[in-house]
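Regression test attached.
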Amino acid sequence: MSRIFITGMGLISAIGDSVEENRISLQHGRSGIGDIQFYQTAHAGKLPSAEVKYSTEELNKKIFGRRNPTITRTSLLALHAAGEAIEDSGLTKEAIHSPDTALVGATTVGGMCLTDELYHDANAKGGGTPYLSSYDYASVTMAMQERFGISGEISTINTACSSSANSILYGARLIRHGFARRVIVGGAESLAKFTINGFNALNILSSKPCAPFDRDRSGLNLGEGAAFLVLEREEDLKGKKSYAILSGFGNKNDAYHPSSNSPEGLGPFLSMKEALESSGLNERDINYINAHGTGTENNDETESRAMIRLFEKVPPFSSTKSFTGHTLGAAGAVEAVYSILSLVHQELYPSLSFQNPIPETGLIPVLQFIKKPMQHIMSNSFGFGGNCSTLIFSKT
Amino acid sequence: MAYFHLPVCISPQNSFPEVDLYQIRESKNNLLEVMEPAYPGIPAAARRRMGKSVRMAVGAALPILEKFPQPDGIIIATANGGMEDCIKFLNQIVEYNEGLLTPANFVQSTSNAAASQIALVTKNHNYNITHVHRGLAFENALMDTMMLLKENKDAGYLLGSTDVISAYNYNIDRNAGCFRDELILNTHLFQSKAKGTIPGEGAFMVMMNNQKMGASAGLNSVKTIHSIDPLTILKTLEKFLSENFMPGEWPDLLLTGEDGDERLLPYIDIVESSMDKCVPVARFKHFCGDYCTASSFACWISMQIFETGTIPELLIKKRGATKPVRKILIYNNFRGAQHAFILVSAV
């Protein structure tokens, strides 16, 4: 079976609007979590969030050079990141338009970031707004299909917070089975009243910057952003630059509760185990884990328990959500890019705001930027509905 | 080839628990809504908490899970599953100005609610995914399952779809010009040329494995394309036919997603006219209405045709050679931009 290589990456988040800017912020411990400046919500100033530092109008200008009244912020973030990934991979126009090029997107709010417009349209309060076909999840992927002229297989996946980890593994499988020679995979999410109020109603949003794996953690911060990667087959590389190999993945369900992990983290354990098995690696081969690490009471303890159960000695791990907030449907892809950056540059980014370990598990994440030789990195994404996915990237 | 076993369909027609496709249930107020069964298998308390799309999905899955209690994965297609709860929550947000809200609707509103509920009630820890790509969500779920069955030859997967008409997606799509303005019955859907169709809904569940024995149908191939150019659709079809048929060989039936919207006719026409004149043509959307995962209803109808050996009269658009139907080519078109070809065959 041909190996799958990552040949392009694009990323926009609260800590930068390119892969390189994100790396610099990670190296310098600069978090993007703070007061909401652009999004209109009653919670601005009270619930710290990791907002992309551009207004929707500015994003429109960056991408289209003008206002585009039917494209949502989520789609704009997707277009920005995917554009960077495509350029980075050096794909020709012919390759992008070829039926051999597939696209797999992921999001959990889609166009529902436009709460007020959706309220108006869904309740039929007068004539329609320009966004009538822009609310669903597919609208984000469709905007990319139109913008880049994709004619191969296209899917959109929504498995809550593991969505874009699944878009990456689904894209890899499309290549393995000959449905595509190359795929553009990733996810996009923007802040939305829908998610801000939803997570707030569940009492899992922190009023402080999140502190993943800390004893006194008080919840997550929402973030927004998009990340896309270009995956290609080994035989098509022909000397082309590549960043890493997608060497394994797992997709399992915790089957415990709609909105929390089982106490022992069975789903996370099974997902990591399956990823290891599919990569043919041993647990000792993993040099670092980019943890799901949301900063909630439930996730960090159950994820810790799952890591302790799987690994004889838990490898260095951290949660980059302490920089980007939880970007939900984009998180798997955002953290895949960070994992690959860690491999390419042989460096680890810290978990911020950590002070004391969780007494029951005692695990301490990476606390500062360090250089370290590494071969294999694991990245976790777990979601509501028990959807757990794990990716493993290996050095080329 | 992958095989369909124990297909279950909850639809606006007589499809569950008893099947009768020789009568057609009429639409009401331009809607084709499902006849929901009593769902004796779902505990009442759980049933009350479930939104309609999840309830239909779980209700359709349970009879299959009785026979195959632990599938090796759950693959669900839904473009707007959870939309009803989603907008209920959104209405709370707006009407209470982001005040103190209850999270129940929020938790129920995620698209993966159906797949995760099925996993939860059966304690299934295996592969679990939800495809939501609008009019091609079901085709993606089919492709996912085909890949899984090549990866794990002895495995069996629960595959399904669920989508509902909610007051909300109805309002949005109506404003977008997707539906007929005039009052019309589904039985007259193809009699007048006009813009728009009538909305429908449904849930489909089936067990997929590599076992021909006892199967309801085989799944030969799936191809999807995004385009608004009828010639691109024709080229895609020609390639699909050449990959799946010998020269001079044709499907025994073409089953199209013609939906009464005149804007779709150029695509339907080009697909129909590319077939040999002996190929009969049937259509299904006057039975199930238009919804994102309606092609799953077409798959289910195909299995009924294989089982009974006849094409229900009410589906037929054009008669052709009277020979046994062994291979059915399904062509679905969702609002002119998303197209799919699915080839299924009798076992």
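Expected vs. actual: identical. The CA atoms of residues 141 and 304 of chain B lie 21 Å apart.
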